[in-house]
Amino acid sequence: MKYMKKSTPDIIISIILFIFFGTLLLQVPEIPKVSRGYPFALIIISMIMTAILLIRAILRLKKEGRQETQIVTQAKTIIPYIVLIIAYLLLLPRIGYVLATVLFMILSFIYLRFKSKIGMVVISVVTTVLLYFVFTNFLEVILPFGKWINIAL
Description:
By secondary structure, this protein is mostly helical.
């Protein structure tokens, strides 16, 4: 078993989040001026909250002792799912939002050992269609169409 301090994961995730929000912040100037305020505010608020998490974790780091972790077991669970997410992101522009999302959700249910096969399909299709209509009709967001396969609703 590996041993680490309890606040170490908070420090690691805080650093990763700062990098992520920093890359988002660099992209804000490319957003039209009319739409720029809301994403900018969300990014700044997220960075402030991440800074608070980091400061609290650093202050706790000196006070706490080491504890046993199950990092290997957790990595065996998380890494395949990360691969599934990357595959989804790579397939999204090629097969489109609808098909990629339905496949991703079904594979996620299988990986998470969801029992009902009918439930997997129904939940995946209904959720995807619902999100598609919300994004396209209410939020007016253009979702990716597939280059290889094009399924649009």
